[in-house]
Amino acid sequence: MRTIVVGDIHGCYTELLQLGAKVEITDEDCLISLGDIVDRGADSVKVYNFLKNRPNTIVLMGNHERKHLRQTLSYSQEIVKLQFGAHYPEFLEWVSHLPYYYETDAAILVHAAVENGIPIEKQREEVLCGCNAGEKYLEKQYGSTYWSQLYTGAKPVIFGHHVVGDNPLIIEQKAYGIDTGACHGGRLTALILPSFEIVQVQSPQDYWKEEIVKWQLPVMMAKPWSSYKWDKIQAICDEFKNSPNVELSAFIMEKEQWMHNLLALAPKIIFKVEERLAELISTYGADDFKKPARCFSYATLLYKVNVSNLTSEFLQQTLPTPDKWLQVMTELGIYF
Ligand SMILES: [Mn+2]
User: What mean pLDDT is predicted for residues 105-113?
Assistant: First the structure.
Protein backbone atom coordinates (compact mmCIF):
# COMPACT_ATOMS: atom_id res chain seq x y z
CA MET A 1 0.00 0.00 0.00
CA ARG A 2 1.24 3.45 -0.93
CA THR A 3 0.35 6.83 0.50
CA ILE A 4 -0.15 9.49 -2.17
CA VAL A 5 0.29 12.96 -0.67
CA VAL A 6 -1.05 15.84 -2.79
CA GLY A 7 -0.27 19.55 -2.38
CA ASP A 8 -2.68 22.50 -2.58
CA ILE A 9 -5.42 21.47 -5.02
CA HIS A 10 -7.44 24.72 -4.88
CA GLY A 11 -10.32 23.50 -7.02
CA CYS A 12 -8.12 21.97 -9.76
CA TYR A 13 -10.30 18.91 -10.28
CA THR A 14 -9.07 18.01 -13.77
CA GLU A 15 -5.46 18.09 -12.60
CA LEU A 16 -6.33 16.00 -9.52
CA LEU A 17 -7.81 13.27 -11.74
CA GLN A 18 -4.86 13.48 -14.14
CA LEU A 19 -2.44 13.18 -11.25
CA GLY A 20 -4.33 10.15 -9.89
CA ALA A 21 -4.10 8.52 -13.31
CA LYS A 22 -0.41 9.35 -13.64
CA VAL A 23 0.48 7.71 -10.32
CA GLU A 24 -1.89 4.83 -11.25
CA ILE A 25 -3.75 5.19 -8.00
CA THR A 26 -5.73 2.17 -6.81
CA ASP A 27 -8.39 1.79 -4.13
CA GLU A 28 -5.72 0.33 -1.84
CA ASP A 29 -3.66 3.52 -1.98
CA CYS A 30 -4.25 6.03 0.76
CA LEU A 31 -4.76 9.53 -0.66
CA ILE A 32 -3.85 12.45 1.58
CA SER A 33 -4.49 16.06 0.66
CA LEU A 34 -2.42 18.63 2.55
CA GLY A 35 -5.42 21.00 2.60
CA ASP A 36 -6.51 24.08 0.62
CA ILE A 37 -8.68 21.87 -1.55
CA VAL A 38 -11.05 24.74 -2.39
CA ASP A 39 -10.86 28.43 -3.51
CA ARG A 40 -9.19 30.11 -6.53
CA GLY A 41 -9.55 27.22 -9.02
CA ALA A 42 -12.68 26.51 -11.08
CA ASP A 43 -14.02 23.28 -9.53
CA SER A 44 -13.91 23.51 -5.75
CA VAL A 45 -17.21 21.66 -5.31
CA LYS A 46 -16.10 18.76 -7.51
CA VAL A 47 -12.82 18.42 -5.61
CA TYR A 48 -14.71 18.43 -2.31
CA ASN A 49 -17.20 15.78 -3.45
CA PHE A 50 -14.44 13.60 -4.82
CA LEU A 51 -12.28 13.69 -1.69
CA LYS A 52 -15.24 13.40 0.68
CA ASN A 53 -16.57 10.31 -1.05
CA ARG A 54 -13.33 8.49 -1.83
CA PRO A 55 -12.61 5.76 0.73
CA ASN A 56 -9.10 5.68 2.20
CA THR A 57 -8.75 9.45 1.91
CA ILE A 58 -7.64 12.10 4.39
CA VAL A 59 -7.84 15.87 3.96
CA LEU A 60 -5.89 18.15 6.29
CA MET A 61 -7.05 21.59 7.42
CA GLY A 62 -5.58 24.34 5.26
CA ASN A 63 -5.78 28.05 5.95
CA HIS A 64 -8.45 28.32 3.23
CA GLU A 65 -10.69 25.71 4.85
CA ARG A 66 -10.13 27.46 8.16
CA LYS A 67 -11.26 30.80 6.68
CA HIS A 68 -14.52 29.16 5.65
CA LEU A 69 -14.88 27.51 9.03
CA ARG A 70 -14.38 30.79 10.90
CA GLN A 71 -16.33 32.77 8.30
CA THR A 72 -13.53 35.25 7.69
CA LEU A 73 -14.37 35.33 4.02
CA SER A 74 -12.24 37.07 1.43
CA TYR A 75 -13.13 37.19 -2.24
CA SER A 76 -12.04 33.61 -3.06
CA GLN A 77 -14.18 32.25 -0.21
CA GLU A 78 -17.16 34.39 -1.22
CA ILE A 79 -16.97 32.81 -4.67
CA VAL A 80 -16.86 29.29 -3.26
CA LYS A 81 -19.76 30.03 -0.93
CA LEU A 82 -21.83 30.90 -4.02
CA GLN A 83 -20.59 27.81 -5.87
CA PHE A 84 -21.73 25.55 -3.03
CA GLY A 85 -25.08 27.33 -2.77
CA ALA A 86 -27.46 25.36 -0.55
CA HIS A 87 -24.73 22.79 0.15
CA TYR A 88 -22.44 25.34 1.82
CA PRO A 89 -23.51 24.53 5.43
CA GLU A 90 -22.86 20.84 4.77
CA PHE A 91 -19.37 21.71 3.51
CA LEU A 92 -18.71 23.78 6.66
CA GLU A 93 -19.80 20.87 8.82
CA TRP A 94 -17.39 18.57 6.99
CA VAL A 95 -14.56 21.11 7.26
CA SER A 96 -15.03 21.37 11.02
CA HIS A 97 -13.83 17.76 11.40
CA LEU A 98 -10.60 18.07 9.38
CA PRO A 99 -7.39 17.14 11.24
CA TYR A 100 -4.48 19.60 11.42
CA TYR A 101 -1.76 16.97 10.89
CA TYR A 102 -1.22 13.33 10.01
CA GLU A 103 1.70 11.10 10.79
CA THR A 104 2.86 8.00 8.90
CA ASP A 105 5.83 5.75 9.56
CA ALA A 106 7.80 7.77 7.02
CA ALA A 107 6.75 11.40 7.54
CA ILE A 108 4.73 14.10 9.27
CA LEU A 109 2.14 15.82 7.09
CA VAL A 110 0.83 19.35 7.68
CA HIS A 111 -0.63 22.10 5.53
CA ALA A 112 1.80 24.89 6.34
CA ALA A 113 4.44 24.60 9.02
CA VAL A 114 5.72 23.13 12.25
CA GLU A 115 7.60 24.80 15.06
CA ASN A 116 10.92 23.16 15.76
CA GLY A 117 11.38 21.23 19.01
CA ILE A 118 7.69 20.77 19.77
CA PRO A 119 5.99 17.37 19.44
CA ILE A 120 3.47 17.31 16.61
CA GLU A 121 0.46 16.81 18.91
CA LYS A 122 1.48 19.92 20.92
CA GLN A 123 1.87 22.23 17.89
CA ARG A 124 -0.35 25.28 17.56
CA GLU A 125 -3.24 24.78 15.11
CA GLU A 126 -2.59 28.25 13.66
CA VAL A 127 1.01 27.31 12.83
CA LEU A 128 0.04 23.94 11.35
CA CYS A 129 -2.61 25.38 9.04
CA GLY A 130 -0.79 28.64 8.22
CA CYS A 131 -3.57 31.09 9.02
CA ASN A 132 -2.63 34.77 9.53
CA ALA A 133 -2.20 34.38 13.28
CA GLY A 134 0.10 31.40 12.76
CA GLU A 135 2.19 33.21 10.16
CA LYS A 136 2.60 36.20 12.47
CA TYR A 137 3.52 33.93 15.37
CA LEU A 138 6.23 32.19 13.34
CA GLU A 139 7.57 35.51 12.09
CA LYS A 140 7.95 36.61 15.69
CA GLN A 141 9.82 33.41 16.56
CA TYR A 142 11.98 33.11 13.46
CA GLY A 143 12.12 36.54 11.81
CA SER A 144 12.48 36.17 8.07
CA THR A 145 14.02 32.66 8.28
CA TYR A 146 11.64 30.07 6.90
CA TRP A 147 10.67 27.42 9.47
CA SER A 148 11.83 24.53 7.28
CA GLN A 149 15.45 25.83 7.48
CA LEU A 150 15.33 25.45 11.25
CA TYR A 151 13.52 22.16 11.47
CA THR A 152 15.64 19.42 13.09
CA GLY A 153 12.99 16.80 13.86
CA ALA A 154 13.72 13.13 13.26
CA LYS A 155 10.87 12.67 10.80
CA PRO A 156 10.66 14.66 7.58
CA VAL A 157 7.75 17.09 7.21
CA ILE A 158 5.71 17.25 4.02
CA PHE A 159 3.84 20.54 3.58
CA GLY A 160 2.06 22.78 1.10
CA HIS A 161 0.79 26.36 1.57
CA HIS A 162 3.64 28.32 -0.01
CA VAL A 163 4.04 28.12 -3.75
CA VAL A 164 7.66 27.06 -4.09
CA GLY A 165 7.96 27.23 -7.89
CA ASP A 166 7.44 24.58 -10.57
CA ASN A 167 9.41 22.00 -8.64
CA PRO A 168 9.02 20.98 -5.01
CA LEU A 169 11.31 22.43 -2.38
CA ILE A 170 13.29 19.52 -1.00
CA ILE A 171 15.58 19.48 2.00
CA GLU A 172 16.47 15.76 1.96
CA GLN A 173 14.84 13.81 4.78
CA LYS A 174 13.88 17.09 6.53
CA ALA A 175 11.27 19.07 4.63
CA TYR A 176 9.30 18.68 1.40
CA GLY A 177 7.29 21.68 0.16
CA ILE A 178 4.92 20.44 -2.54
CA ASP A 179 2.63 23.41 -3.30
CA THR A 180 3.60 24.12 -6.89
CA GLY A 181 0.78 26.54 -7.70
CA ALA A 182 -1.65 24.41 -9.74
CA CYS A 183 -4.42 27.06 -9.58
CA HIS A 184 -2.02 29.74 -10.87
CA GLY A 185 -1.05 27.83 -14.01
CA GLY A 186 1.71 25.92 -12.21
CA ARG A 187 1.71 22.23 -11.39
CA LEU A 188 -0.14 19.86 -9.09
CA THR A 189 2.38 17.74 -7.21
CA ALA A 190 2.13 14.36 -5.53
CA LEU A 191 4.71 12.85 -3.23
CA ILE A 192 4.46 9.08 -2.89
CA LEU A 193 5.29 7.39 0.41
CA PRO A 194 7.30 5.54 1.46
CA SER A 195 9.48 6.06 -1.66
CA PHE A 196 9.36 9.91 -1.63
CA GLU A 197 8.92 9.78 -5.41
CA ILE A 198 7.60 13.02 -6.93
CA VAL A 199 4.95 13.03 -9.68
CA GLN A 200 3.52 16.20 -11.25
CA VAL A 201 0.93 17.37 -13.77
CA GLN A 202 0.96 20.77 -15.48
CA SER A 203 -2.04 23.14 -15.30
CA PRO A 204 -2.90 24.56 -18.72
CA GLN A 205 -3.87 28.01 -17.44
CA ASP A 206 -4.00 30.48 -14.54
CA TYR A 207 -7.45 29.55 -13.23
CA TRP A 208 -7.50 32.13 -10.43
CA LYS A 209 -6.89 34.99 -12.84
CA GLU A 210 -9.99 33.93 -14.78
CA GLU A 211 -12.15 33.32 -11.71
CA ILE A 212 -11.37 36.79 -10.35
CA VAL A 213 -13.09 38.38 -13.35
CA LYS A 214 -15.84 35.80 -13.81
CA TRP A 215 -17.26 36.07 -10.29
CA GLN A 216 -17.12 39.82 -9.76
CA LEU A 217 -20.78 40.48 -10.53
CA PRO A 218 -22.31 37.43 -8.78
CA VAL A 219 -20.28 38.10 -5.63
CA MET A 220 -21.28 41.76 -5.67
CA MET A 221 -24.95 40.86 -6.17
CA ALA A 222 -24.85 38.41 -3.26
CA LYS A 223 -23.61 41.02 -0.78
CA PRO A 224 -26.05 41.89 2.03
CA TRP A 225 -26.41 45.48 0.82
CA SER A 226 -29.34 46.39 3.06
CA SER A 227 -27.41 45.59 6.20
CA TYR A 228 -24.36 47.67 5.23
CA LYS A 229 -23.80 51.13 6.68
CA TRP A 230 -24.32 54.08 4.33
CA ASP A 231 -20.63 54.96 4.05
CA LYS A 232 -19.69 51.34 3.41
CA ILE A 233 -22.15 51.22 0.50
CA GLN A 234 -20.74 54.50 -0.82
CA ALA A 235 -17.17 53.20 -0.49
CA ILE A 236 -17.97 50.01 -2.47
CA CYS A 237 -19.75 52.11 -5.11
CA ASP A 238 -16.80 54.49 -5.41
CA GLU A 239 -14.42 51.59 -5.78
CA PHE A 240 -16.31 49.72 -8.50
CA LYS A 241 -18.51 52.15 -10.43
CA ASN A 242 -15.77 52.80 -13.01
CA SER A 243 -14.97 49.10 -13.41
CA PRO A 244 -14.17 48.02 -16.99
CA ASN A 245 -16.64 45.17 -16.37
CA VAL A 246 -19.71 46.98 -17.79
CA GLU A 247 -22.28 44.69 -16.16
CA LEU A 248 -20.60 45.24 -12.81
CA SER A 249 -20.42 49.03 -13.18
CA ALA A 250 -24.10 49.11 -14.27
CA PHE A 251 -25.10 47.09 -11.21
CA ILE A 252 -23.05 49.32 -8.93
CA MET A 253 -24.55 52.51 -10.35
CA GLU A 254 -28.00 51.03 -9.80
CA LYS A 255 -27.10 50.36 -6.15
CA GLU A 256 -25.78 53.89 -5.70
CA GLN A 257 -29.00 55.30 -7.14
CA TRP A 258 -31.03 53.05 -4.83
CA MET A 259 -29.14 54.41 -1.80
CA HIS A 260 -29.56 58.02 -2.94
CA ASN A 261 -33.28 57.49 -3.54
CA LEU A 262 -33.66 56.11 -0.03
CA LEU A 263 -31.74 58.97 1.56
CA ALA A 264 -33.72 61.50 -0.48
CA LEU A 265 -36.77 60.43 1.54
CA ALA A 266 -35.31 62.03 4.68
CA PRO A 267 -37.61 65.12 4.58
CA LYS A 268 -40.64 62.84 4.30
CA ILE A 269 -39.50 60.78 7.29
CA ILE A 270 -38.79 63.92 9.33
CA PHE A 271 -42.23 65.31 8.48
CA LYS A 272 -43.93 62.05 9.53
CA VAL A 273 -41.98 61.91 12.82
CA GLU A 274 -43.00 65.50 13.58
CA GLU A 275 -46.59 64.58 12.81
CA ARG A 276 -46.43 61.52 15.10
CA LEU A 277 -44.95 63.62 17.91
CA ALA A 278 -47.73 66.18 17.60
CA GLU A 279 -50.28 63.36 17.86
CA LEU A 280 -48.59 61.92 20.96
CA ILE A 281 -48.44 65.31 22.66
CA SER A 282 -52.06 66.06 21.90
CA THR A 283 -53.09 62.68 23.36
CA TYR A 284 -50.78 62.48 26.40
CA GLY A 285 -49.65 66.06 26.95
CA ALA A 286 -46.19 67.61 26.63
CA ASP A 287 -45.04 66.17 29.99
CA ASP A 288 -46.34 62.62 29.67
CA PHE A 289 -45.80 61.65 26.02
CA LYS A 290 -42.34 60.14 26.64
CA LYS A 291 -43.46 56.87 28.16
CA PRO A 292 -45.88 55.90 25.35
CA ALA A 293 -43.30 57.16 22.81
CA ARG A 294 -40.95 54.44 24.05
CA CYS A 295 -43.10 51.82 22.29
CA PHE A 296 -41.96 53.08 18.90
CA SER A 297 -38.73 51.75 17.38
CA TYR A 298 -37.97 55.35 16.39
CA ALA A 299 -38.45 56.77 19.92
CA THR A 300 -35.00 58.44 19.67
CA LEU A 301 -36.27 60.43 16.70
CA LEU A 302 -39.41 61.52 18.58
CA TYR A 303 -37.35 62.78 21.54
CA LYS A 304 -34.97 64.58 19.18
CA VAL A 305 -37.81 66.36 17.39
CA ASN A 306 -39.21 67.39 20.75
CA VAL A 307 -36.04 69.26 21.77
CA SER A 308 -34.61 70.50 18.49
CA ASN A 309 -34.67 70.13 14.75
CA LEU A 310 -34.40 66.65 13.34
CA THR A 311 -31.75 66.82 10.62
CA SER A 312 -31.02 64.38 7.78
CA GLU A 313 -27.57 63.82 9.31
CA PHE A 314 -29.08 62.79 12.65
CA LEU A 315 -31.51 60.54 10.81
CA GLN A 316 -28.68 58.82 8.94
CA GLN A 317 -26.73 58.28 12.15
CA THR A 318 -29.70 56.91 14.05
CA LEU A 319 -30.80 54.69 11.16
CA PRO A 320 -27.34 53.65 9.89
CA THR A 321 -28.38 50.99 7.37
CA PRO A 322 -31.02 50.66 4.60
CA ASP A 323 -32.66 47.88 6.67
CA LYS A 324 -33.20 50.18 9.67
CA TRP A 325 -34.23 53.10 7.44
CA LEU A 326 -36.80 50.98 5.57
CA GLN A 327 -38.16 49.51 8.79
CA VAL A 328 -38.90 52.96 10.23
CA MET A 329 -40.36 54.08 6.91
CA THR A 330 -42.77 51.15 7.00
CA GLU A 331 -43.74 51.92 10.57
CA LEU A 332 -44.43 55.53 9.55
CA GLY A 333 -46.50 54.43 6.56
CA ILE A 334 -44.06 55.68 3.94
CA TYR A 335 -43.76 53.36 0.98
CA PHE A 336 -40.71 53.16 -1.25
MN1 LIG B 1 -2.83 27.32 -0.65
Answer: 97
